[in-house]
Design brief:
By secondary structure, the chain is mainly alpha-helical. It contains 9 helices and no strands.
């Protein structure tokens, strides 16, 4: 009798867990349906990257369990550095980062950091500003001659992405504003307890610049250059492609 009662209880618990699991799964499916409907392929790409991260993490753990730690470590490092967030980058074109960098060493350095920490953490710490600075300078300072490199849209739109704000990263001007405001605030509040407001102030200034001030300013600056229609040059013909210093990217 006790065994039958125990079996009944176990079955009841199992059925309850099964029902709860089904309800949770249905609820999550509905939430994802709404998310994909609102976000389109961008949302699909981001969730796809999340799924691939989980697959790779499981595979690497199983490799370690099987005694293949060295291979697992190399694979984990390669995936984190080069392929983490691949679908999102592919779909969004990342905007800032789709042209040749100012310094290849700086590009490799940041890619490693982002591979280890992830895009969200790099953005929250403003480490992603390294990428913005490295890739936006060649575009912002050469509005008429930067190469489009098969990027969709007009040169003026691409210029604004690097000047004001891209799909993932902030543009050059908001990044400069953030650090200028932060440094000035830290100096002004040095030795006081008010230093904690500096990050807030810098974030606010950056947000205002990226969303409201920089976009129209970008258009005015671009239009003031009177760039000939269709004027462009191919990657490899720019000054930073031919600098001989080992700290700069050499022409391929």
């Amino acid at each position: 009798m006790k065994k039958l009662l125990l079996l009944f209880l176990l079955c009841s618990v199992g059925n309850a867990a099964l029902m709860e699991g089904k309800v949770y799964g249905k609820r999550q499916a509905e939430l994802l349906k709404a998310e994909f409907g609102a976000g389109g392929l961008v949302a699909v790409a981001m969730r796809g990257d999340q799924a691939l991260d989980a697959m790779i993490a499981l595979a690497i753990q199983k490799l370690r369990d099987a005694g293949k730690g060295d291979y697992a470590d190399n694979a984990e490092s390669d995936y984190g550095t080069y392929y983490h967030g691949y679908l999102t980058r592919m779909h969004l074109m990342r905007d800032i980062g789709d042209h040749a960098p100012l310094l290849q060493w700086l590009a490799d350095f940041y890619n490693y950091i982002e591979g280890v920490l992830g895009v969200k953490t790099c953005k929250s710490l403003h480490l992603s500003d390294i990428k913005t600075f490295n890739f936006a300078v060649p575009v912002v300072f050469h509005p008429c001659t930067f190469p489009m490199d098969n990027v969709k849209g007009t040169k003026e739109q691409e210029y604004q992405r690097h000047f004001a704000m891209g799909a993932v990263y902030d543009g050059l001007i908001p990044v400069i504003v953030y650090w200028v405001v932060d440094i000035a605030c830290m100096i002004a509040t040095y030795g006081t307890s008010a230093g904690g407001v500096c990050g807030i102030a810098a974030d606010a200034a950056e947000y205002l610049m990226a969303h409201f001030i920089a976009p129209p300013l970008s258009n005015r600056i671009y239009e003031s250059q009177n760039c000939p229609v269709g004027m462009t040059i191919k990657t490899g013909d720019l000054w930073w492609d031919n600098v001989t210093s080992p700290f700069f990217r050499k022409a391929k």
